[in-house]
Design a protein that fits this description.
Length: 271
């Protein structure tokens, strides 16, 4: 696909279409803006061009998509299906085991507000890049089953992955809030992105650069005084929760950790 520039109005339309097509609904809520002015950070200058035919990355993406179709119906496939959900309550549940607290919007409202507001910035970056590069999803290039209905994604582009961007936004912020649990938190964030590969709805490169989209945008977000204030409030909230909050189920957490540790790239047989 060719790379073309678009006007800001098209970016807005693309973001709306992406949300309707199953992309993370990061702009939901009372606040329409994140921590950054809308024109203060341009992810297009940070990301490399999306893979195109003749690019080794393009061939690798196709091979990974075909190989991972053998994971259909496996426990890892089931986790990928779970990870289709993008609500804040869902992500809080997804990261509860890694933090050691059963997180909910009710018991961690400051955390929810912090990540959702930062997520509007990272989500905007993802949406702008998607519409700029306009790369097709893997199932639009090769035949293969997906764990999410394809029609939900028909009008949304591949690169970078909005899910990976969203999950990595949660992972990075949580890892800073609870640094002694950073290894497990970041591993779960990586696996959340990789679920899109297992699901067959994003190319591997789109997931990898979804992580970069979140990391790069958050680097700019952290300079915001409002972000730092909200982060401090969320850190106090997390400190109390870790002492008195409800604990997640140990058996469930161990099963999830085993799936997070699974190597999706080499644990399958090429078809």
């Amino acid at each position: 696909m060719s790379v073309t520039a678009h006007t800001p109005r098209v970016f807005i339309v693309a973001a709306i279409v992406g949300a309707l097509a199953g992309a993370p609904a990061l702009a939901a809520g009372k606040t329409k803006h994140g921590y950054l002015p809308s024109d203060s950070f341009d992810i297009r200058a940070v990301l490399p061009v999306a893979p195109t035919p003749g690019d080794p990355r393009y061939d690798a993406d196709r091979a990974i998509f075909k190989n991972t179709r053998s994971m259909i119906g496996s426990p890892r496939w089931n986790l990928a299906t779970n990870d289709v959900k993008t609500g804040s309550a869902d992500l809080m549940a997804d990261f509860s085991c890694t933090v050691g607290v059963a997180l909910t919007p009710h018991n961690a409202p400051r955390l929810k507000a912090l990540v959702e507001t930062a997520g509007r910035d990272t989500g905007r970056s993802s949406g702008i890049a998607k519409d700029y590069f306009r790369r097709l999803r893997p199932f639009q290039i090769d035949d293969g089953a997906t764990c999410q209905p394809k029609e939900e994604l028909a009008n949304s582009f591949d690169y970078p992955s909005g899910h990976a961007t969203w999950g990595w936004t949660w992972a990075l912020i949580l890892a800073e809030l609870v640094p002694d649990k950073a290894t497990a938190i970041l591993a779960r964030g990586r696996a959340y992105g990789e679920s899109r590969i297992v699901c067959g709805v994003h190319n591997a490169s789109a997931v990898q650069y979804g992580y970069l989209t979140a990391s790069a945008t958050l680097a700019a977000v952290r300079a915001s005084a409002k972000y730092r204030t909200d982060f401090a409030a969320a850190r106090k909230e997390m400190a109390v929760l870790r002492k008195k909050g409800p604990k997640p189920n140990t058996a469930t957490c161990q099963a999830e950790a085993d799936l997070v540790a699974q190597d999706i790239y080499h644990a399958v047989t090429p078809q």
